[in-house]
Amino acid sequence: MLQAIRERAQGWLAWVIVALISVPFALWGIQSYLGVGGEPFVAKVNGVEISDRDLSRRTQQARIELRERLGEAYDPALFEEGRLRAEILDDMIRQTLLLDTSNRIGMRVSDEEVRVQILSEPAFQRDGRFDRESYERLLQLQGLSPAQFEEQLRQQLLGNQLLRAVVGSELVTRQEFDDYQRLVGQTRDLSYALIPAGDFRSDAPIGEDEIRAFYEANAPRFQSPEMVKLDYLVLDVADLAKGAEIGDDELRRVYDDDQSRFGRAEQRSVRHLLLTVPQDADDAAAQAVEARVRAIRERILAGEAFAEVARAESQDPGSASEGGSLGTIEQGLMDPVFDTVAFNLPVGELSEPVRTRFGYHLIEVTEIIPPATKPFDEVKEELRAEVSRQRAESLFYDLGERLANVAYESPDSLEPAADELGLTLQQSDWIGREGGEGVLAHPRVMSAAFSDEVLVGRTNSDLIEPERDTLRAVVLRVADHRVAAIRPLDEVRDEIGEELRLTRAREAATQAGSSAAEKIRQGVSWSEAIPAAVVETPAAVGRDVQTVPAPIRELAFTLPVPVEGAASVGTTVLENGDVAVIQVTAVKDGEVTPSEGPSPTSEAAMLAQVLGRQVYDAMLDDIELRAKVERNPIKTTSDL
Amino acid sequence: MSYETDDEKVEAIKAWWKENGVAIVMGIAIGLAAIVGWRSWGDYRDSVAGQGSTVFDQVLASAGTGQTDAVMAQARVLNDDFASTPYAALGALVEAKALYESGQPDAAMTALTRVIAAAPDPALARIAALRLARIQVAQGQLDEAAKTVAAHDTSPEFAGDFAAVRGDIAAARGDTAAAREAYEQAIAKESGFSQVIRLKLDNLPAAG
Questions:
Q1: pTM over 0.80
Q2: Are B39 and B71 in contact (CB under 8 A)?
Q3: Alpha-carbon gap: A439 to the closest alpha carbon of chain B (Å)
Q4: Confidence at residue B144, expressed as pLDDT on a 0 to 100 scale
Q5: pLDDT tens, position by position, A207-255
Q6: Is B184 within a domain?
Q7: Quick one: pLDDT at residue A239?
């Protein structure tokens, strides 16, 4: 059999078999193109899956952006994980829908268009021209291959095209714009009068039944939260620094000990000449070089200029052209052997040959710049501040430890700790969990105050340092505690009575206002309808005129336009409870700017832009309504 | 069936192949041709759509700089040569604005009618109908506008926008009560311009 196969393996049958075998290979892995199976998805939009991983990545990105934008104000609790995720998922679904729709209706972005976009992107340009290297490097930074990036860009362009088509083609008709100007610029003539609620206030006692009924109906309002009174000690580095006295002689000692900070070490201007000795040279070769150096030294001693010789002979590429000059150096910059020689040589004397790992040097010092120091008086105050801060800090840690110990050893009172450390025992007023003033405003302090050990066990708290970068520490204990409760009726009776009187007065004023409005509607004069009132009659009130109170203005512009035989009258309640009766007497439309040429004004263009944007949103909603969107329940992963 | 020797088997296979070989080869060939044909048809369509896309970008650019003549010329190219792509309709949508703003409301209405007929997605037809109705109101063709609205007010997402146009039609006819009702409906359904509609509503004369 095998023999037969081998014989025929050359023939046509072999080719048929190969062809048949190649078919499954060609189709193998096709599911990865069709997207069958794979990762878990959170939503499916018209068959397109949005993967959990993509959503998590986008959520994480959004969080980072928020954090950057809000800076200090960023509070993770404000952006609850689940809600942020849900919002971003909605966004992704819409984006997917938009792309799916654009594709489905046959919109495409040509390769040419993608190419033009890439070529004109400033980030990919160098010297004003597209630079392939920058392009590839930037993509690499984002972890994208050019093909992936181009696909992303293509989708972006595609999504944008429909947006631009819809928003960019929105128009505002001439009539609509004229109407808009008339309405926005409209002014109205008003008459109004105030009926003060205070006029209807009575001091008559209010029935117990009524008060009780109010109390029972509004129980949550009389809830008083759980509160504590605290005893506490504060240890603050700022106070410690204030107390410390530091004598001049001590400052002088610090100054003397730490000279290097206030001065500059000796510097020398040095020039040299180097003949190199290769790393792997043997002794004989080294000696040969040394001999040559000695010869050069003789020439200089004989009167040749150092600079000229160095320029001609030195094998130090950096300094040879400078006549051997190394500029000014400080100790520690050069090879130690070089240093030792250079810093012991008097000015103007040529050294013996010096062997370093580079080779043989001839060294000459051309100038010595002596060390310089800032005088003590100049730095005294700076030093004093520094020393006192250091002193206070070490005192702070020392006292902090003792405070913690004493407070722990006598857990039933803070007095021993206050006595031992000389701190003042402070006492707070009633405060709730939201915190009090100063150091008590800090959440870390308040959570300690309401912790089990402190609140229930009534022991001293641990040493609390509320802010990481501030040296301030607190120990506290609960002096008194009040549980959350509904305040007793006796305590709030007067409060309720006052409130009920106010409500009644307001109701009566509103009542009076309505009946006065009705009279005016009937044609009764103002002075008859509201005898005590002062009638204001502002003319040509615009929508944003500040001289007329806002609630009155608002009502004035929502009342119907007066027509013959129907007065336009209404009432509104001001913030302080007073009631205003308002009549619109005349309406004057805003001025319409005549059209200048065919193109719309910028204001009309802006209106069109807003309108277009909203129509675009409606379009996406409409598409979503018709689409098949399937959501998997959102799994919240805490990625903080 | 059983075969005595390998030769017999080979003979049987040969015989089978003689009988069916042509059919198999033809089948594979047709299959491959279909795949290749489908692919190149898709490529061709993509390339036509891509060209249409490029022309449409030019329409947008011309419209952005107010060159009405260029917009019209390019929109005509889209209409004539790219009718199989959505760009014919999108081009007409942009053209309508350019025409209206250059003082040719009738031509603009024709363009919008074309968009409605050729819209690749119902939402685009609704947007075009909305604009058509608004131009009709501005031109005083209230009956036509009412007809346009009635024919296309079929999606809850655009109901508010169409209600606003109905309000404008009623207000133009002096039917305050109907206008009030329509405007209130538009605001309730969050039409695009609820603030302006609020102003219109407040400005209606008192009933009675």
A1: no
A2: no
A3: 48
A4: 93
A5: 888 888 888 888 888 888 888 999 999 888 878 777 667 778 888 888 8
A6: yes
A7: 80
Q: Of A560, A611, A619, which is closest to B204 when you measure between CB atoms?
A: A560
Task: Enter the DSSP assignment of A29.
Answer: T
Chain A touched by B4 (CB under 8 Å): no
Q: Check: CB of residue A172 under 8 Å from CB of residue A166.
A: no
Element (H, E) at A371: none
pLDDT for A1: 64
B3: left (phi over 0), alpha (psi -120 to 50) or beta: beta
Tell whether B204 is within 8 A of chain A (Cβ): yes
| Best residue in A2, A46, A171 for a mutation probing chain B (most B CBs within 10 Å) | A171
**Cross-chain Cβ contact A110/B97 below 8 Å:** no
Angle at B189 between CA B185 and CA B190, to 5 degrees: 115
**Which residue range is the domain that position B71 belongs to?**
51-120
Higher-confidence position of A74 and B143: B143
Mean pLDDT over A451-474 rounds to 85
Give the pLDDT score at A144: 81
CB B79 within 8 A of CB B91: yes
The mean predicted confidence, pLDDT, of chain A is 83
Q: Is A30 on the interface with B (CB under 8 A)?
A: no
Give domain A266-370's CATH number out of 2.60.40.650, 3.10.50.40, 3.40.50.2030, 2.60.200.30. Answer: 3.10.50.40
Q: Is the pLDDT of residue B32 over 70?
A: yes
- For A193, residues 6+ apart whose C-beta sits below 8 A from its C-beta are A516, A526, A530, A533, A534, A535, A536, A580, A581
Question: What CATH superfamily is the domain A2-178+604-639?
Answer: Porin chaperone SurA, peptide-binding domain (1.10.4030.10)
Of A112, A113, A599, the CB nearest to B66: A599
d(CA B150, nearest CA chain A) in Å: 18
- Scanning A87-116 for CB atoms below 8 A from B yields 101, 105-113
φ, ψ (nearest 5 deg) of residue A44: -130, 120
The pLDDT value given to residue A80: 65
Contact across the interface for A623 and B199, Cβ inside 8 Å: no
Per-residue confidence at B110, pLDDT binned at 50, 70, 90?
A: very high
A 353-372 residues inside an 8 A Cβ radius of B: none
pLDDT one-digit tens code per residue, A29-83: 555 555 555 677 888 888 888 888 888 888 888 888 887 777 665 666 556 667 7
User: Is residue B35 situated within a structural domain?
Assistant: no
Instruction: Give residue A261's pLDDT band: very low, low, confident or very high (50, 70, 90).
Output: confident
Phi, psi of A53 (to 5 degrees): -65, -45
Interchain contact, B157 vs A561, CB within 8 Å: no
* pLDDT (0 to 100) of residue B165: 93
Q: What average pLDDT does range A335-350 have in this prediction?
A: 87
The answer, for A136 touching chain B at a CB cutoff of 8 Å, is no
**Residues of chain B contacting residue A169, judged by C-beta atoms under 8 Å apart:** 63, 93-94, 96-97
- Residues linked to residue A219 through DSSP beta bridges, in sequence order: none
Domain layout of chain A by residue ranges: 2-178+604-639, 187-216+489-588, 227-240+393-482, 266-370
Instruction: Determine the residue of chain A that is closest to B134 in CA distance.
Output: A173
* Closest Cβ–Cβ partner in A101, A112, A618 for B161: A618
Nearest in space to A102 (alpha carbons), one of B54, B85, B94: B85
- The residue among B4, B203, B204 with the most chain A CBs within 10 A of its CB, best to mutate, is B203
Instruction: For residues A444-467, give the mean pLDDT.
Output: 86
Q: Is the pLDDT of residue A132 over 70?
A: yes
Question: For residue A637, what pLDDT is reported?
Answer: 47
**Among all chains, which residue has been given the structure tokens 């604005």?**
B97
In angstroms, what separates the C-alpha of A99 from chain B's closest C-alpha? 13
Alpha-carbon torsion (B187, B193, B197, B199), positive or negative: positive
**Hey, which residues 568-627 in chain A have their CB within 8 Å of chain B?**
568, 587, 598-600, 610-611, 614-615, 618-619, 621-623, 625-626
